[in-house]
Write a structure and sequence with these properties.
With 498 residues, this protein is mainly α. The chain is 74% helix and 2% strand. The chain is built from 17 helices and two strands. A two-stranded antiparallel sheet has the order 1-2. Helix 2 (87-105) runs parallel beside helix 4 and helix 3 runs antiparallel to helix 4 (135-164).
């Protein structure tokens, strides 16, 4: 009997061990299957994210090509750059209109189709800009390309949040990295096709050894060999061709990797937010984007001018000042690239705090420039690099941070881009008027914009916390605790009754 009981106990232990082992293996297999299913379900989202990133790369090329090609385009039109000064207003106006149209259509049309249509409008404007040698048509084509940019930026940002929800931080940083990278690559794409342009009091003349000499009163256009197409059209055509490939990719993804509305990873809480809170946040965020864009564009626009201006400017040669600009853009691209990885470790609020600390320190050093520029000019380079590195991820982080407090739909994104477009147009104006006579106005206004930006951000944070994060009911910490409790409960071994 004792031997039987011993054998019975031994058998029960073996059965229990086998059951536990099989159960454990089954759980591991189930976990593996779940992760595989999750990866498989996310695969279309990855494809869409790559396509959206390609669109942002094309948008960066489109945005940057205008400034580089403007002297050549002005020469082709037999005008000076000053004669085409309204082009910035035309571009900003197109950007605003495009974003608002996209914001209105977002609730009525498919996101994916809107993104493709925005790129199509952008591409049409890009193709026509260098070949239509008429001032009015030039403004219209520039507005058309910027209309597409405004629409695409609105739709693509919202679509990223729609696809990834709480997981969107690194993806949105990834998209904006490609925008920065496209802007930085534009000079390498276009420099071989731009004429060297000199200006006199009455007109602009492009210089090229292969060009046929013409009368001083006529534009001297360099054409593609054996054609009547201006040479400057080549980089525009390359950009348009790239945009065409992206459009085709988006259409193919729409049919073969489409996502139903039920697969959206984001949550809509507009009704719970309330009108006062939502509108208050949108107004504060408008001003936040307004000063953020104005601050960055003021540096983009006038850093080169400050570099070549005699004391109290830097008094650099044109080559050295160009190197200063290149260094600034390199820090922008590097900062945006690193933000992709930081966003996986830190929340948007923490990244924004670090960004604004860097921008604040850089702005203080700008104000102190008269005290050190003779003794330590390298400190100015470090300051500009710090600002470029810190400010580059602010746009995406504000977008992500705001999404934690209000639902970012097409209309909200349009408000943000409206703030960006108006800031880009308005805030550089006083510096443009003053920099020739008072070169240090570049430093004073830039610092003032950055301090105002930081102040508005603090006010926005205070107002946002009056209701708290809209996803707090789905606190990840609480979810992890529940999952841990469920796992421990499953692991309990039932008592064996003998």
């Amino acid at each position: 009997m004792k031997d039987f009981l011993k054998k019975d106990d031994f058998a029960k232990k073996e059965v229990s061990k086998n059951l536990l082992g099989e159960d454990s293996t089954a759980k591991q297999d189930a976990t593996t299957d779940d992760s595989k299913r999750e990866a498989l379900s996310d695969f279309p989202r990855y494809l869409w994210s790559v396509a959206l990133g390609a669109g942002f790369f094309g948008m960066g090329l489109t945005l940057a090509i205008l400034g580089l090609a403007l002297p050549t385009l002005a020469a082709n039109l037999n005008l000076t750059i000053d004669d085409l000064s309204l082009v910035l207003i035309a571009r900003g106006g197109g950007y605003i209109v495009g974003s608002f149209i996209a914001g209105i259509l977002e609730s009525k049309f498919d996101f994916h189709i809107l993104a493709a249509l925005s790129l199509l409008v952008m591409g049409i404007g890009v193709v026509l800009t260098p070949v239509i040698l008429n001032v009015t048509s030039f403004y219209i084509c520039t507005s058309l390309s910027s209309l597409g940019m405004g629409g695409y930026e609105t739709v693509a940002n919202v679509l990223c949040l729609y696809l990834w929800g709480k997981k969107s931080e690194p993806v949105l940083q990834f998209l904006h990295f490609w925008f920065c990278f496209g802007s930085a690559m534009t000079p390498f794409l276009s420099k071989s096709f731009l004429n060297q342009v000199v200006h006199n009091a009455s007109h602009s003349i492009s210089i090229n050894s292969s060009a046929t000499a013409t009368m001083a009163s006529s534009p001297n256009i360099t054409y593609i060999e054996n054609t009547t197409v201006p040479l400057v059209s080549v980089p525009y055509f390359i950009i348009a061709g790239f945009l065409t490939l992206v459009i085709i990719s988006l259409i193919l993804l729409k049919f073969f990797a489409s996502l139903d509305s039920t697969e959206s990873q984001d949550e809509n809480t507009i009704e719970q937010e309330g009108t006062r809170y939502r509108y208050g946040m949108l107004i504060l965020l408008f001003w936040l984007f307004f000063f953020m864009a104005g601050f960055q564009v003021t540096i983009f626009t006038f850093l080169y001018k400050f570099g070549i201006t005699e004391s109290p400017g830097l008094a650099y040669s044109r080559d050295v000042s160009a190197d200063l600009n290149a260094m600034f853009f390199i820090t922008v691209v590097v900062g945006q690239f690193l933000a992709i990885f930081w966003s996986q470790k830190f929340s948007p609020a923490k990244i924004l705090t670090a960004d604004f600390i860097g921008v604040g320190i850089g702005s203080v050093l700008l104000l102190l420039y008269p005290l050190y520029f003779e003794a330590a000019p390298i400190l100015f380079w470090i300051t500009i690099g710090l600002i470029g590195f810190s400010a580059t991820s602010v746009y995406a982080c504000i977008f992500l941070w705001a999404n934690r407090y209000i639902t970012i739909n097409g209309s909200a994104a349009a408000v943000f881009i409206f703030g960006v477009a108006v800031g880009e147009m308005v805030l550089p104006i006083p510096v443009g008027f003053l920099i020739n006579e008072h070169v240090l106005s570049f430093l004073y206004f830039t610092s003032g914009y950055s301090f105002t930006l930081i102040l508005i951000f603090l006010l926005t944070v205070k107002f946002a916390h009056t209701k708290g994060q809209r996803l707090s009911q789905n606190n990840p910490v609480e979810e992890d605790k529940l999952k841990a409790e469920e796992y421990l409960a499953d692991q309990k071994i039932p008592e064996t009754v003998v």
